[in-house]
Design brief:
Length: 68
């Protein structure tokens, strides 16, 4: 995530389920620590999205992570 933030400026992460959302939030926190020494202040904007998994509609959480 840190490498994509540095090269592209932002990244989107989608997670389905409590465990996956927990891991995504931890990954964002870790990435924030990696890029902070370079003067990059990360922010995450969460949103609900509907996605199809094996033909079934599921609700996921999307995090748009970018620089402030």
């Amino acid at each position: 995530m840190s490498a994509v933030i540095r090269s592209e400026g932002s990244v989107e992460i989608q997670a389905v389920g409590a465990s996956a959302v927990n891991q995504a939030v931890k990954a964002i926190a870790i990435a924030r620590g990696f890029v902070a020494p370079n003067g990059i202040d990360l922010v995450a904007i969460p949103a609900f999205v509907e996605i199809a998994i094996d033909g079934e509609e599921r609700t996921a959480i999307k995090f748009v992570v970018g620089q402030r």
